[in-house]
Design brief:
The chain is an all-alpha fold. Helix content is 72%, strand content 0%. It is built from 20 helices and no strands. Helix 1 packs parallel to helix 5 (82-100). The relative contact order is 0.05. The model has no long low-confidence stretch (mean pLDDT 87).
Length: 384
Amino acid sequence: MQGLGSKTVPPITLLPMKPSTELFDLIKSLTKSEKRFFKLHSALQSGDKNYLRIFDAVDKQKVYDEEALKKLFAKETFIKHLPSEKNHLYKLILKALRAYHAESSVSGILKQEIKNIEILYQKALYTECNKLLHRAKRIARENERFYYLFELLSWEKMLLEEAYESGEFTKDLDALIEEEREVIEKLRNLAAYHILYSKINYVFRSGGYVRTEEEHAMVEEISEHPLIKGKNTALSRRAATICYYTQGFCHWAKRDWKTSLQKFLRVKEILDENPTIKADLPKRYIRTMHYIINGQIELKDLESAASNIQMMRALPSATGFIGPNIETQIFVASYLGELRLLARSGEFDKALELVDNILEGMESMGARLHKEHELEFYFALANV
């Protein structure tokens, strides 16, 4: 093709697009029990189940190979529309996972309860609806799930209107409105703390240290925030964990290990005293444990640090600490902590004994292991 003057513009070569690995990644993330549940869930479906054959074939692959799938099912009609079959399978897996995990978290339970309340309300079964409502409110209140509590209060107002129309005036609308106001106030308070939580995690996103003047300025700004500097500003236990967690980080930035450790220990104490909230905030608990261990290493309390590393590794057996994401976070925090501990105590031979386990774990994590954590491991291993 001729361009300006006598120059020739070379033809554009389009590279073939790689097949998406989303289905492969989802299938590989499933546990044995999740796979078994999916198969049982699929048994309830009618019609052709070619998607199960695709599921089994993909599950056997170590690396996703779409061409191998096409060869395997070359004589089957459904292979001609493989993309739609894959999409159908992906949706079915997610549907089965929603059912499998429906009651594995407070959020899942409350979502189900709210849906049940909606169904009973539409059927005008108000007495039964009220029973479910009060049970769900208790769960939401105990677990400080204010968003769900706000939605439940909206349903309660609708039920109150139905009661008034039936001539029942046993409930106080003013009290309900006041309860709603308190919930909104707690929601706003928690949302404000979440913003601070996100900011402080951004500053400490790698290595746990402030590295630039800009980051120092951000830490100083956060430490002077009324919600962090003031007393009794957190209106819930969830907000309190963020408050102490952020205070711990601010003191960490100033190398005040002792005060920082006290703040992180307070976060752990609040979560340990409230198991349901702890189960709902596994990442926050692991991050907190990570800085407790590092603080103890800095203060030369190596015995406590070693004990907490073992405690962290036992977390997958606790409620709420499940899934590849949590597994990765525990792997990173516990092994980086142990390498620092052994380096600080001069036990380099023991550190070298960890190398094979760490490299094997890093390989198994694959893309789940962030590049910054990967570099941290290589740096730590180079110094043992």
